[in-house]
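Handout, page 2. Input:
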Amino acid sequence: MPITSVEKDLDQLTITIVADFAAPLRRLWDAYADPRQIERFWGPPSYPATFLRHDAAVGGRSIYKMTGPEGDEHYGCWDWTAAEAPSSFEVIDRFADETGAPNTELPATRMDFAFTATADGSRLTTTSRFDSLEQMEQLLEMQMLEGTKEAMSQIDGVLADLAAFATERAAEAELLSDTQVRVARVIRGSVDQVWRAHNEADLLKQWLLGPDGWTMPVCDVPAKVGDTYRYEWEREGGGDRFGFTGELLEAEAPYRSVTTESMIGMEGSTLNELTLTAVEGGTLLSLVITYANAEMRDMILATGMTTGMETSYARLEGVLESTFAR
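Output:
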């Protein structure tokens, strides 16, 4: 158990938990910043968490669900009020519904996470702040403290698992729900560089090509929220042209964008949520795709989508190196 102390201050309406880890400071920070990692320990073992959104930036949001042993689902959300990697972040943690909308009938918790290096690794000090003694007692009665202790007991295992989150791993798709998939990969390059490569046509046309042998003759990039985009590909020498179009719904440069996507000439669309997070070794690219139903999700995954995305992401790293190394 990494927890070394728990202090309840009824006068200040705070609960402070101190935990020590035999892992470098940056490794511990990344475990909280990476949705693939935090969901392995945010919920207690009997109520594992799935993060449907995770913006590790000021003004960002996180949405998660905890699934109980009977399949019951309980949602929560964070509003990020501060973030200074790799030393601290602050969030307002709330109960929520399945859309991520806060439940105002239940108390919110202001949580401060402070990361410091130690002689043997790193330390995390988590301070939970409450608006009233009644709210504090209500959450304690809901077994908040016991659940937190159980959840944090899992962090050591996540920190020790270096292979699962290594920079060298190819793009992988994870099922988040019946309609959602998350594709994640660490890209060697800064967040600003990866953002530019997704938003500048001359860069997009160099890497967003899928398998070798294709070109991108049409690359109309949206400049602002509400704009539409249109991307088309064809084989070198011509033929087999296809493309996608959609609308830019959200843009928070350089870490988040949300678009719709429809294949030209086909019915149906997806919602694509791109999040970029600085991690050790580069930028974690996380793309959450929401499909109309499970059948559409499975059909598209069966086309080898992830393999084609990995080919493009590997090419992206080469474009970043050649473009920004100068």
